[in-house]
Amino acid sequence: MPLVELKGVSKRFGKVVASSNIDLRIEDGEYVTILGPSGCGKTTLIRMIAGILEPSEGKVLIGGRDMDGVPIEERDIGYVFQNIALFPHLNVLENVSYGPIAKDADQEEQRKVPARYLGLVNLLDRMKMFPSALSGGEQQKVALARALASGARILLLDEPLSALDARVRMDLRYELRRITKDLGLTVLHVTHDQEEAMTVSDRIVLMRRGRIVESNTPEMMYRAPKELFTANFIGETNLLDGVVVASGDERTLVELRDGSVMGAQPSQFEPGDAVVISVRPECVHVADDGLSAIVRSMSFMGTYIRITAEADSEDILGFDVRVPRGRDFNIGDHVHLGWSMESALVYPRPPGGIAEAVKLE
Ligand code: ATP
């Protein structure tokens, strides 16, 4: 039985439609991230599951039971919200012990469980401190330990790692996945950070303007996004306007705006169709022929150099070159760029143009 289900859920605040007709099933034990740009409705969605907000329409079900009118404390939910709400009059240990005590766990458990999770977030030495004396990142870790210690079967995490340093954030996200998998918890994790979503989730639900754009495993969201918005939001991509000149079982051939004909994966498009090709920077390489372009900028990224080049069509393309070879390029160089047909995807050209289709708000 799915543990969390949303059926036709909408939420309006006056004229603002924060959620629009959302259908979503989260299976028992699944780790799902809700990803999307700021203001797309992620927090609203998670708050309706928690019972902090009531849907304007539709139903939230947990374990098959309609949650209409059921308060948060009866929903079997542990949560970490953006504005961390620790109990200010309780110290760190008391905050984390709150769940086990409220649940009337036995003495042994009341002692062991909070210490286990405080150890995990490296805060055993802060046990006696009050929230006001902690940094934002430390408060976030306490909130996380408290949610885990609550013993709830569902965890709702709204940007739970946002106040942490990049390095700590990286370590903690692996820990978070490992612990929640060990405990068999169902997790809904809200983030606007696509790298975080890629690394922790079983499945990513991508939202835009109050709606779900698409939902799939991180790998499929990256390798085979169904929508242009997804291709652009998850990872980076080059988007090029063109017209199909040939289409078959092995490839689609597209004439770009500068007249060059480039290949892409097979598709359902017919010659004459207006399309957009999406090809990721790591798949673009310098070739003997192909798209003619001038190198405009070079950025050192560590193991590779990101080069941007302007094609004759005025399209700007990014491509990556391993560091030793990257040094062979200079701004102003004339290059030809190509890619393997399998690495390029084809989408219908959006009526409102590419910029509108991938716009973040
Ligand atoms: P962020 O990543 O910036 O936190 P989000 O994706 O979580 O954004 P929400 O906080 O769910 O987005 O907001 C979705 C939309 O609903 C926004 O336009 C927001 O201004 C609006 N909204 C949210 N809560 C309220 C409210 N209580 N009253 C009025 N409008 C609201």
Description:
The protein is an alpha+beta fold. The chain folds into 2 domains: 4-229, P-loop containing nucleotide triphosphate hydrolases (Rossmann fold), CATH 3.40.50; 236-358, OB fold (Dihydrolipoamide Acetyltransferase, E2P) (Beta Barrel), CATH 2.40.50.100. It has 10 helices and 19 strands. The protein has helices spanning 42-50, 92-102, 107-120, 136-149, 166-183, 194-200, 218-223, 228-233, 323-326, 354-358, and strands at 4-13, 16-26, 31-35, 57-62, 65-66, 77-80, 154-158, 186-191, 203-208, 211-216, 238-247, 252-256, 261-264, 274-279, 285-300, 304-311, 316-322, 334-338, 344-348. The strands form 4 sheets. Strands 6-7-8-3-9-10 form a 6-stranded mixed β-sheet, with helices on both faces. A 5-stranded antiparallel β-sheet has the order 13-12-11-14-19. Strands 2-1-4-5 form a 4-stranded antiparallel β-sheet, covered by helices on one side. Helix 2 packs across helix 3, helix 2 runs parallel beside helix 4 and helix 3 runs antiparallel to helix 4. The mean pLDDT is 91. It binds adenosine-5'-triphosphate. Residues 13, 16, 18, 36, 38-44, 192 line the site of adenosine-5'-triphosphate.
